[in-house]
Recover the amino acids of this structure.
């Protein structure tokens, strides 16, 4: 299976409309890939909180339209990263779209864990409530976004739902890049799954981005890793390795659930 991770740079001097068209052209350039992935909040920048309200769009807004067309023209499964969605009730969400090679939308994932503690995304956006998987012909994807990577229980839930390959779209800051690599490998090892973790390049609202998108196999081996700048990271991997790993080293079968919590 061939996956292309587009580590796009977010330039504050580039308009959202121009970036949409540029992202679409980058997707079209990946014809022949099975899966193409874009990062978190690439239309606006993950830390550009001041423009979230202004640039929010409905689910089937311009980002949906441009990405659906790009998926169909390229003939690829497209994980279109995420954008700022405005729901009919006015709530903002950090929303991921996945499109099939015919351009039909296959999945919507709203980020469950919102970053910022008492500011930014954590107070401006609603939290998603559903784990989302997508069945491709070769593998089943489990979807996560950026800060989700720090919460292993989400990934175990995705494994229980059939996920074999995790796609993590992110706008991860450079100052915590060591955590990015460590957590991507940890999620792969503990779940015996592939991790395709894609971050952005450039700078979001003066927050330098980590780049260094990474693909990790079910044993925790790094198959490919990008640098700091905009680039397309393309990797070939064998989805059958997930089942083989889980059979060879059946650690997931030894999980013990429902243990009692001691009183405090």
């Amino acid at each position: 299976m061939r996956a292309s991770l587009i580590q796009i740079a977010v330039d504050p001097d580039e308009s959202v409309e121009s970036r949409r068209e540029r992202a679409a052209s980058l997707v079209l350039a990946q014809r022949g890939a099975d899966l193409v992935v874009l990062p978190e909040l690439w239309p606006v920048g993950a830390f550009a909180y001041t423009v979230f309200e202004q640039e929010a769009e409905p689910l089937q807004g311009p980002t949906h339209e441009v990405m659906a067309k790009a998926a169909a023209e390229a003939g690829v499964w497209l994980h279109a990263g995420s954008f700022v969605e405005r729901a009919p009730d006015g709530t903002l969400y950090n929303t991921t779209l996945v499109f099939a090679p015919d351009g039909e939308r296959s999945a919507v994932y709203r980020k469950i864990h919102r970053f910022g503690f008492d500011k930014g995304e954590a107070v401006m956006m609603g939290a998603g409530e559903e784990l989302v998987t997508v069945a491709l012909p070769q593998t089943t994807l489990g979807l996560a976004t950026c800060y989700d990577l720090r919460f292993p229980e989400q990934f175990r839930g995705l494994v229980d739902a059939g996920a074999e390959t995790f796609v993590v779209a992110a706008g991860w800051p450079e100052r915590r890049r060591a955590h990015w690599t460590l957590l991507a490998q940890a999620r792969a090892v503990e779940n015996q799954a592939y991790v395709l973790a894609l971050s952005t390049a450039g700078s979001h609202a003066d927050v330098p981005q980590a780049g260094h998108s990474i693909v990790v196999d079910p044993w925790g081996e790094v198959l490919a890793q990008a640098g700091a700048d905009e680039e397309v990271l393309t990797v070939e991997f064998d989805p059958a390795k997930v089942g083989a790993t889980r059979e060879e080293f059946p650690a997931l079968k030894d999980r013990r659930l429902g243990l009692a919590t001691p009183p405090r």
In short: The mean pLDDT is 97. The first helix runs from residue 16 to 28. The chain has seven helices and 15 strands.
